[in-house]
Amino acid sequence: MLHHIELYVSDLSKTVDFWDWLLKELGYENFQKWDSGRSWIMNDTYIVFVQTEERFLDVPYHRCRVGLNHLAFHASSRNQVDQLTEQLREKGVNILYSDRHPFAGGIGYYAVFFEDPDRIKVEIVAPD
């Protein structure tokens, strides 16, 4: 079982604004808060976002480089995927692969794909 994930971000304030509502919609609760970071928890697993130090901000994140490609979360249903998609659109978040949405992952794979403020790809996938 996964214990936690920690991600460094370019702008903690933007990241918290983006992720707080989404993680709460997925069932996570606020966990920890300090000057340079925030975390949310569900059961025994938590996700942490930490402000990157200025000296390391010279090279932006890109999911095609070595390292994290994307984060994928379970949705409770196809309906939740649809509701989150609408909320993302209302917030002006670009839906990736919109021409194939909600089946961009393949036939029978019902999900929404989008990016956070640092362009980390996020996927919310419904159960089969």
Task: Summarize the entry for a quick read.
With 128 residues, this protein is an alpha/beta fold. 21% of the residues lie in helices and 31% in strands.
Task: Based on Cα principal axes, name the global outline.
Answer: globular
Q: Main sheet, how many strands, which sense, barrel?
A: 4 strands, mixed
Output the structural class.
alpha/beta
**C-alpha-based Rg, rounded:** 15 Å
Mean pLDDT across all residues, rounded? 96
Beta-strand residue percentage:
25-35%
| Helix proportion | 10-25%
Q: How many separate helices?
A: 2
Task: Tell me the total number of β-strands.
Answer: 7
**What is the helix/strand order?**
EHEEEEHEE
How far apart, in Å, are the first and last alpha carbons? 21 Å
- pLDDT under 50 segments (min length 5)? none
Biggest sheet strand order reads: 1-4-3-2
Structure notes:
There is one protein chain. The chain is α/β, with parallel strands linked by helices and 128 residues long. The chain starts with a strand and ends with a strand. The protein is built from two helices and seven strands; from the N terminus they run βαββββαββ. It has helices at 12-25, 78-90; strands spanning 4-9, 29-34, 37-42, 45-51, 70-74, 111-115, 121-125. The longest helix is centred in the first third of the chain and has 14 residues, at 12-25. A four-stranded mixed beta sheet has the order 1-4-3-2, covered by helices on one side.
